[in-house]
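Input sequence (188 aa), recorded before submission:
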Amino acid sequence: MSYTEAEKLAEKPMPIDESRTFKAINIALLTVSDTRSLKDDSSGDILANRIAAKGHTLIHRSLIRDDQPKIIKQLNQWIDEETVDVIITTGGTGLTGRDITPEALDVVKDKDIPGFGELFRWLSYEKIGTSTVQSRACAVVSRGTYVFALPGSNGAVKDGWDGILDTQLDSRHRPCNFVELIPRLLEK
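Predicted structure, token format:
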């Protein structure tokens, strides 16, 4: 396949099968930041608005400082809550010494979803060029719950939601989506 053919394929939007029923899921949203509060958490607001606009339920929203034990504790609490299907974090995915969200996910994970970070950086590259290599956006499955870690910038959460999560968290998305796998995540 030539580069031009691959580009055309990448530009083609994946279909939403309108004949299928949309299944709303429960999402918990965690902002990780030393500098923001819930009052000025613009990236969290963007995600909360997109979650609601899509028809999902924002079941929890919280903000925690860049403190790995506290992040792990919050993640574990939500992971163990049967009503939480997905956790989305924003912030703490950079390279500084205080950025420890991916390390917190490493503690709670059962499986990595490596394609999430790869796709995020590919989408981000189109907007910020090589600066995307500084992002450690990642995703894992933990005890039957998806956990997605996005950077804290407004542009990054838009890229992550609009470019990946909007469709992958839509039960009508073809050829496959994360939602249809939720009942099978705990299979042995």
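Checked by second reader. The chain has one domain: 24-171.
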